[in-house]
Design goal:
The chain is of the alpha/beta class. It has two domains: about 10-180, P-loop containing nucleotide triphosphate hydrolases (Rossmann fold, 3-Layer(aba) Sandwich), CATH 3.40.50.300; about 200-305, K homology (KH) domain (GMP Synthetase, Chain A, domain 3, 2-Layer Sandwich), CATH 3.30.300. The chain has helices spanning about 30-40, 85-100, 115-125, 145-155, 175-180, 200-215, 250-255, 260-280, 300-305; strands at about 20-25, 60-65, 65-75, 100-110, 130-135, 160-165, 225-235, 240-245, 285-290. The strands form two sheets. Strands 2-3-1-4-5-6 form a six-stranded mixed beta sheet, with helices on both faces. A three-stranded mixed beta sheet has the order 7-8-9. α6 (about 200-215) packs antiparallel against α8. The radius of gyration is 21 Å and the shape is globular. The chain starts with 17 loop residues before the first strand and ends with a helix. About 35% of the residues are buried. Bound molecules: guanosine-5'-diphosphate and magnesium ion. The site of magnesium ion has 5 residues, from α1. Guanosine-5'-diphosphate (GDP) binds near residues 30, 33, 135, 139 and 169.
Length: about 300
Amino acid sequence: MSDSDSPSELDPPDLNYRCGFAAIVGRPNVGKSTLLNALLGQKISIVSPKPQTTRHRILGILTNEAAQIVFVDTPGLHTSGKRAMNRHMNRAALTSLSDADVNLFVIEALRWLDDDQRVLDELTQRGLPIVLLVNKVDQVHPKERLLPFLEEIGKKAAFADVGLISGLKRKHIDELPALIAKYLPQSPPHFPADQVTDRSEQFQASEIIREKLTWRLRQELPYGVTVGIERFVEDDGRLLINAVIWVERSGQKAIVIGNAGEQLKEIGRSARLEMNEAFRRPVHLELWVKVKENWSDNDLALKQLGYE
Ligand code: GDP
Ligand code: MG
């Protein structure tokens, strides 16, 4: 490689470049994960119609010529639930709020619940700029119905900016990076330009399986279900992955496996197809279902499953 191929010391650093953290915050189910995926143009964070799907703090990294925005997708703040898992989720959400340069407060168009107010109270205490993102505007007809709603919400806090968006339909998503970058400090990028997440492929594999489970089982999905990766090895250009779906009771095991193993087979098939795409090499996936009693109320078990 010749010297001219690499950024040389002779190139002046771009002093106008911006880089920083934007937390995506809001009550469960407003569409935070969908928004993150739309912004990044690929699936980083799993989405489901069931609230509380996001358990981890996830970084999605968007890099363009003007800025690098590091998005933090938070588990929805919520007050219900006293189990160890709920405490973990709230802690993770609160930490990412204070680390950010700007908070993206996501709400649903024409819906303001007590939990939205609670999130806003947390945000205003931090004194960081808050960008209000009114999501799911695709559901509003005619659009004029938004005006009185926006006027009401506008009285609740001094928002730095307001965006009317649809993460699902990708409406006004492309304008967001420039809008958000205004609130980031001038800084060179923190991550390489081609990196989209700080999460390992192993972690992404478990998220993909968890998403397929959520979509397949819907209402039947046992509350305590989680996924552990037992083996993740490269083999001659292929990935060999063994994963365990942990449930809390043997009755739940039967639900996940389904009649003659059909359910589990379909979950494995769709997960494998998505992994082939995501990891850009063929994946061989083996799935087991095992019972671990009451893990979601057990701090030690949570640690063993990777929730710090
Ligand atoms: P989160 O809990 O805030 O991360 O929400 P998710 O991203 O998991 O989305 C929750 C539900 O809302 C899913 O069923 C999404 O498909 C749906 N959703 C998200 N964004 C939109 C949107 O812009 N329009 C509509 N109509 N639905 C959306
Ligand atoms: Mg989410």
